[in-house]
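Supplementary Note 3. Input sequence used for the single-chain structure prediction.
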Amino acid sequence: MSTTFGIIPTKLDDQLTFGNVVSIAEKTLSDFLQLYQMDIKIKISVDIRDNDEKYINPVSLDDRFFWKNGEYAYFTLDKAKGGTDAYCNKISDTLEYWETYIEETCGKLVTPAQVKQIKEDNVKWYFRRSAGQSALINIAYGHLAAATAKLCNGIIHSETGWDPELFPTTADEFIAVYFKPEKATHEASRKWAEKSLNNLRESAVGKKTTV
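The predicted structure, written as discrete structure tokens, is reproduced below.
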């Protein structure tokens, strides 16, 4: 089982780089942990991998946040078990079988002019977290999705990543509530967040604050 966050961009520019995605996610994740009295140094790494695991390629932090079909970006955190994978796809591939995909997925958050631009840009991303990941990865993959959306004024959508009625949403609205038990509207989301935060606290007891 996996959970995913999708991002549909409304603008693309030179600010959308691997380095900027990573630095924003590191900052928002650190701020989040401090809210729950956890002073943990966050360091995110990323590489590009072939879907069939034929190769692993390094990336430059100055590289723009795009990669080929048949590849995925794999994000890890220092000393945290597991990671999260991200995919970069063409929107046109979805529009071949779902003509109203953009309008239905983004709802009132996009204008007709933005829909036109989205089609011209012809790109979307999604971040996936597989079951059994560490508590920190559970939290981090949402922050990586939000960082991507922040840089492209993107719309975040999901059916399985957090409270379903939150979506579609913007990066700022998402990060204000994601993984905060007191902000959850579904009992399952609240319990998942509380369990992950408790596990993270327990794992940090008696250890250095770098994970």
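The first strand starts at residue 2 and ends at 8. The longest helix spans residues 18-35.
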